Amino acid sequence: MADDIADFNVTELATELTIAWLGNPNNRVSADEVPAFLQKMHATVSALAGSGGEDVQPEATTEYLPAVTVRKSLASKDHIISLIDGKPYKTLRRHLSGHGLTPDDYRTRYGLKADYPMVAETYSEARRAMAKKIGLGRKPGPRKAAEPTVDGVAAPKAPRGRPKKTA
């Protein structure tokens, strides 16, 4: 009898929680998903109450199948094809964060090596060239170029700026 009362309270609590969750206007759920949500809520509340109702088993690890092969994802130097959706990207970082993944999580999920690139080769080269052009990676401080000499005597310097107007 005590088991029936505890079970009733668990069912009532699960129902109340489900109603409250569905009453929130920010949660949009179709009518087909409500029974499954209620069952999951009941199982969770039962496990928390320790009533010994349904045993909540940990979810089995999901096996993720890549959209393309690893070889095909790295076939082009211009882009990397995502193993998640099969679309080409110059860099995968923003794409992965949109799926709630870090590069390490992505590599682990698909069994990739630690050196699997996250940026396309040509994009990386272009960014490297631009960084060198603007001077990133240099040690701080001005660098003076060696002054040209003629027989050990410094060559005269060319005037800088625009020539002065003569009136």
- Determine the mean pLDDT: 82
Class per helix and strand makeup: mainly alpha
Summed up, the helix count is: 6
Q: Which shape, going by the Cα principal axes?
A: elongated
What is the ordering of alpha helices and beta strands?
A: HHHEEHHHEE
Rg from C-alpha positions?
32 Å
Strand arrangement within the widest β-sheet reads 1-2
- Extended strand count: 4
Give the uncertain stretches in residue-range form.
none
The major pleated sheet works out as:
2 strands, antiparallel
Explained architecture:
42% of the residues lie in helices and 5% in strands. The chain has six helices and four strands. A two-stranded antiparallel ribbon has the order 1-2. The protein has a two-stranded antiparallel ribbon with strand order 3-4. The longest helix has 22 residues. It starts with a helix and ends in a 13-residue tail after the last strand. The model has no long low-confidence stretch (mean pLDDT 82).
Tags for this entry?
167 residues; two-stranded antiparallel sheet; two-stranded antiparallel ribbon
Question: Could you write a compact summary of the structure shown?
Answer:
The chain has 167 residues and is mostly helical.
Question: Layout of SSEs?
Answer:
Layout (H helix, E strand, L loop, with lengths): L1 H22 L10 H16 L20 H4 L6 E2 L6 E2 L3 H6 L4 H8 L10 H14 L14 E2 L2 E2 L13
Antiparallel strand pairs: 1-2, 3-4
Helix pairs in contact: 1-2
